[in-house]
Amino acid sequence: MKHTTLNEFLYELFALIFSFIIVHSIYVTVVLPNAAVLLEEQRLEQATGGSNAIKKSIYIIIKDYEQESCIVLTLWVFAIMGLKFRTVLQERRLLSRSLLEVSPGTSILPEDARQYSRPIQTLPVAERDCLLPRTLLAALQRFGSTRNIPDVSTAIREICESESERFDTELSMIRFVIWIIPSLGFIGTVRGIGDALSQAHLAVQGDIFGVTVSLGVAFNSTLVALLLGIIIMFLMHQLQLLQERLVLDTRQYCDVNLVGHLQVR
Q1: pTM score
Q2: What pLDDT is recorded for position 257?
Q3: Which one in 166, 190, 261, 265 has a CA-CA gap of 20 to 30 Å to 174?
């Protein structure tokens, strides 16, 4: 388990670094040059008495530091959730396999617990560490030692509840990012409004280009942050739903394929 935790930490660390490199490279080579060209064209147009409105462009909307930070964090969270989605889907595949090999109508006695545990213990380590094999092994061991069927049900429930709590705890980083992305958007709003106010004297003299650009920073940063936050929240709830279904289906699998066959003489 410690080895798995270390691997997940390293994965998240390198995913964050990789996300920053990819996004910043795109900003340096594509977004910022195009945004600078569009803003310069708009400045010249206003200087010659043209339209005072800032042209709509995705480059201008996402050009600032706050939007770049939000996109980096979003890409990082996608990488984290992608790993968790894959893990849950891999565990769900075990639910379609017959790990116990119990024929219909067969009874499992306490003396048989070790025999039925052997096929599960021979699984590859990656599969044996999944929720279903761990739950089945714990239930069989409990049945073999206590010879009590209610104790088996208690063991299954405890492991599933513990796994559910672990799933919830592992979502804490995603929840933190969901909180911090709108905060970055609000920081951009404050910065943009502050810049606009600092150029108020130019607007009084008729040069409103700087104020317009600064207000664009204020509103665009909030717009991007809120949109990304909504997308991440939707995906997180889908992940959480998939995890909860895994736990419930595991309990049902154990009840049908194990507890229903247990018998004490």
Answers
A1: 0.85
A2: 87
A3: 190
